[in-house]
Design brief:
The structure is a single chain. The longest helix is centred in the middle third of the chain and has 19 residues. The chain is α+β, with helices and mostly antiparallel strands and about 375 residues long. It starts with a helix and ends in an 8-residue tail after the last strand. The strands form four sheets. The protein has an eight-stranded antiparallel beta sheet, with helices on one face. The protein has twelve helices and 20 strands. The chain folds into two domains: about 160 residues, Thermophilic metalloprotease-like, CATH 3.40.1830; about 190 residues, no CATH class.
Amino acid sequence: MIDPRIDKLADVLVNYSVAVKPGDTVYISGETLAEPLLEAVFRKTLEAGGHPWLQAVLPRQAELLLRHASDQQLEYVHEPYRLLVNTFDASIYLNASANTKALSNLDPRKLVLHRQARSEISRIVAERTARGDFRWTLTIYPTDAFAQDAEMSLAEYADFCFGACLPDLDDPVGYWRRFSSWQQQIVDWLKGKEQVRIVGPDTDLSLSVAGRTFINADGRFNMPDGEVFTGPVEDSVNGHVSFSYPAIHGGREVTGVRLFFDQGRVVQANAQKNQDYLFQMLDADDGARYVGEFAIGTNQGITRFTRQILFDEKIGGSFHLALGQGYPETGSQNTSAIHWDMICDLRDGGEIWVDGELLYRNGRFVIQLQSAG
C-alpha cells in the first residue's frame, strides 16, 4: 500500500511550491528510489494542466561520472539541458540518495571542475528565478541512507520528513500559506535595516545588509522550508564564527569549522576533520571565500541535526551562512561554483542584533509577531 502522505506531498509540490498552471512545462527529476513520489508528482502535474518531462536518475550516476569521466567529459554540458534551463517554466527535484557517502573519497578537484563548468547554468537559473520566469522546488524522499545519517529507522525518518513537510496533514497547503504570512512579518521588520551583529559561543560576527532584500522562504523553493535570508554586502562581513554542526558538502563531513573574516573575505579557517577539503573548497574560485547568504532558521518543527541541509538549515533557533554563490533576488553580487551552507545553533546564549535593536535571543524572536494561526 502506498503511503497516503506521498500523494499529499505531491499536491503541495505541484499546486503550492511551483504552482503549476495549464500549459506550463515542468521538469521532474530524482533518483529512482523516489519512484512513488515521482509518479505522484507526474500525475499531479498532468491534473494541473502542465506538460511534465520526467527524468529518473540512477543511484550511482553521479559517482560513475566523477570516478570515470575525463576532464573534458566533466566540463561538457548537454544542449538539451541548456534548453531546459532557458525555456522551462518550472522544475521539481526529488532527492532520494542510496548512499550519501558515495562521493566522499573521490578527487575534490573533479567535483569543483564539474561544478565550475555548470556555473553558467546556475547563473541562468538564478537570474530567471529572480525575474519570476522560472519556478523550482526540491524535497527529500525518505531512504535508508538518509535515515542512517540521521540515526533513525526508516519508519522514524519517514515520519520526520513527512511531519516537517506536512505539519497540518488535513490542510498542508493552507498551513504553508499561514506560515508564509507569519514569516512575512519578520521580512517586513527587516526591510530597510542596515547592520547585523550575531553573537554566540565562540562567535562574534558583523555584516551589512544595507540595500539588500530579505526573502520569505515559505515552501516555494524548498519543502520543508522555514528561513528568512539575504545576501550580505560582499565586503562587509567581519569577525569570527564557530559552526555548531558538521558542514556537509560533496559527500564529505567537515567538523569543527571556524572561519575568520576581514572585509568580507575568509582570511583564516580551521576544522577538526577534513580541513584539507575545506581549504580546497575555499580556493575553488574568487567568490568561494565570500558569503553569498545569511539566513535565520525559523522551523520550530525541525529540532535535531540530520546531516541533510534541506532540513538542518531550517532548524528553529539557528542561523547559517553560505560561502560562495549568492541569490540575485537578494541583491547579492557574489558568484562562485560553490554554495556551502554552514549552521550555527543560537539556542544557548546566542543573540542577533539589527541596527542596535535585539531581534533574536536564545533561538527565539523577541519582536512582536502575530501568531501563524
